[in-house]
Design goal:
CATH superfamily of the largest domain: inorganic pyrophosphatase (n-terminal core)
Helix content: 25-40%
Order of helices and strands: HEHEEHEHEEHHHHHEEHEEHEEHH
Number of helices: 13
Radius of gyration: 20 Å
Strand order of the largest sheet: 3-2-1-4-5-6
Number of strands: 12
Distance between the termini: 36 Å
CATH topology of the largest domain: inorganic pyrophosphatase (n-terminal core)
Strand content: 15-25%
Shape: globular
């Protein structure tokens, strides 16, 4: 974050403000962790702050301190729209394009607040007056910790803030195994534990709360796995019927795509999940090494993200989409088989 924007943010927050804090649609651990961490800090400084999420978030994140205070735009629409329209400052965390908030987009575009973006995804748009964008960061939660240091507030990190930030770093780094995890990441994690982050309990709450139906859904996903050895690629499909059969709830497919990368020689893993309500297939891309799934998702599937983790969508059927996906692979054979 450059000095000009640090000073601008300090000035902006020097007096109590009415603030809305926004994660992306279908918020994950990093989105919820970063927004709640910032919410705890801003409330502690006397601001009238509130997190407004575009829709619900997974059950395994609802233990997080402050989660019960999050406004759900889908379910609490009038209150959420009032909060956005009356906000003097709007923080957007873990996304960098207003299209990532679904039906909230129009409300944010109409807002007259000062926008502050904190995000680590590639190719940010320019809607924010104050920006902290860094694609090298492991997570937005790691960036929130740095943001607090820029605000001279590192000593104000409470156990609630520490638990929220730790959760986002843990989930967005794949439990610290992704390439974006640095020595700085680990030093921050050590400080968070010292400040009260319960690392053992957090890991258990995130990863050890499976329902039988989720494990059965995972079994279905793995049974559907297609391995394309010629391209060191694998993909999983899940239809709406299969989701319904195993009583799918939000967050149940989190991490399924990563199972493909546990196979020897696989460099590219994808999952296609049907969402009949929205009329699309939601797609997650993962890779190892230098194969850029951000570029792949942006070019072919209206998505984007990071070099090794990205998302996209398709309006076509499952059969049409997977055929199209397979048809793309020959042009990337050299990159996938180096």
């Amino acid at each position: 974050m450059n000095l000009e924007h640090i000073n601008a943010l300090k000035t902006l927050l020097s007096l109590p403000k009415k603030i809305a804090i926004i994660p992306h649609k279908n918020p994950d651990g990093d989105a919820i962790g970063s927004t709640l961490a910032l919410w705890h800090y801003l409330k502690g400084k006397g601001h009238n702050a509130m997190v407004v999420a575009p829709n619900d978030f997974p059950k395994f994140l609802k233990w997080m301190p402050g989660a019960e205070s999050i406004l759900n735009f889908e379910k609490e629409n009038t209150q959420a729209m009032d909060r956005i329209s009356s906000a003097e400052v709007i923080f957007t965390l873990d996304f960098n394009h207003l299209g990532r908030v679904g039906q909230m987009t129009a409300s944010l575009e109409a807002a007259e607040a000062t926008f502050v973006m904190v995000d680590h995804h590639q190719e940010p748009s320019d809607y924010a007056q104050i920006m902290y964008s860094d694609v090298r960061m492991s997570s937005t939660c790691e960036m929130v910790y740095h943001l607090l240091t820029y605000l001279n507030a590192e000593d104000e990190v409470t156990s609630e803030i520490a638990n929220c930030i730790y959760t986002g770093i843990l989930t967005d780094t794949g439990s610290f195994k992704f390439k974006s995890t640095t020595s700085t990441t680990h030093r921050i994690v050590a400080k968070l534990i010292d400040k009260g982050a319960d690392n053992t309990a957090i890991h258990s709450r995130i990863y050890d709360t499976n329902s039988p139906s989720r494990l059965h859904l995972l079994g279905c996903a793995l049974k559907n796995m297609v391995i394309l050895s010629e391209y060191n690629t694998t993909y999983i499909t899940l239809s709406q019927e299969e989701l319904d059969q195993y009583n799918f709830s939000k967050g149940d497919t989190e991490g399924f795509v990563n199972y493909g990368l546990t196979l020897e020689h696989i460099r590219f893993a994808v999952i296609f999940i049907e969402n009949r309500e929205e009329g699309i297939l939601k797609i997650s891309f993962r890779s190892v090494g230098d194969f850029d799934v951000n570029h792949f998702a942006r070019k072919f599937f209206e998505g984007g993200g990071h070099t090794n983790a990205a998302g996209g969508k398709s309006d076509a059927s499952m059969a049409e989409t997977t055929r199209y996906f397979e048809s793309l692979l020959p042009q990337f054979k050299k990159a996938l088989t180096l």
